[in-house]
Design brief:
By secondary structure, the chain is mainly beta. The protein has one domain: Beta Barrel (YmcC-like fold), CATH 2.40.360.20. It contains one helix and 14 strands, in the order ββββββαββββββββ. Strands 1, 2, 3, 4, 5, 6, 7, 8, 9, 10, 11, 12, 13 and 14 form a 14-stranded mixed β-sheet that branches. A hairpin with a 2-residue loop joins β10 and β11. The N terminus is likely disordered.
């Protein structure tokens, strides 16, 4: 799935900042509009190069749904809109994409969600966290096992800088994210631990969303260096 490297205009009101959503879902760095889509290409992942498209397929007063298409795989991620900001209620982002490219299918329920993923305001020097717990089934190479674990991320906003990707050149907030996903799978009484850890730098452009991510990580003992760049986007 090769995206077209074309930047599409976002909707704006007069001379103001491009529309970033409404009510609790309004966020300058992640415009929540039904039908908005972003196409990305990753290089350097453990599974090789791949492309994917994220689309906001449903927006509610207190949340929204992102549907991701990764080759022949489709997955959804639910989000909540809260006074403190946007909160991911399920696994997503590069970590989930990396696990999926490792031929893992996770069928999970999530609980004990705390923190925030995108605060309502982000300025240089801000730090915040997001954590969730999960349990369910893990399928890999034809084997199904019970799984439980945690996903934790720590965010640090470093400041605004110019970044260029195929979709264009943007003034973007640079945010460093340290993520750890720990999974303990049990099959016929045998414990099979799996883990993802990574330190990524994300660049978020106001009125657009995240335009680039670059970092290092390790999944199931394999180290890698990955770069993800926005190829095109459309925000109605």
């Amino acid at each position: 799935m090769q995206a077209t490297a074309t930047e599409l205009p976002v909707t704006s009101e007069g001379n103001s900042t491009p529309v970033a959503g409404e009510g609790l879902c309004a966020n300058p760095y992640y415009p929540i509009r039904e039908g908005a889509s972003w196409s990305y290409k990753s290089t350097g992942s453990p599974a090789g190069d791949y492309s994917f498209t994220d689309t906001i397929t449903s927006v509610r007063e207190d949340g929204f749904t992102i549907t991701s298409h990764l080759d022949d795989l489709t997955r959804t991620q639910e989000w909540a809109c809260r006074p403190e900001g946007l909160v991911a209620l399920q696994l997503g982002g590069p970590a989930a994409a990396t696990l999926n490219t490792q031929d893992m299918q996770l069928n999970l329920t999530f609980n004990n969600i705390s923190g925030v993923t995108f605060p309502r305001e982000i300025t240089a020097g801000n730090e915040w966290q997001h954590m969730l717990e999960f349990e369910g089934d893990l399928e890999s190479t034809g084997t199904s096992a019970e799984a439980a674990g945690t996903a934790e991320s720590t965010f640090s906003a470093l400041g605004t800088e110019s970044v260029t990707v195929p979709a264009g050149t943007f003034d973007a907030m640079r945010v460093e994210v340290e993520s750890t996903i720990t999974i303990n799978a049990t099959y016929q009484g045998i414990s099979m631990p799996a883990a993802f850890s990574g330190t990524y730098t994300f660049w978020f452009a106001q009125g657009v969303g995240w335009v680039k991510a670059s970092g290092i990580g390790e999944v199931i003992g394999t180290s890698f260096t990955e770069t993800i760049e926005l190829q095109s986007y459309s925000i109605p």
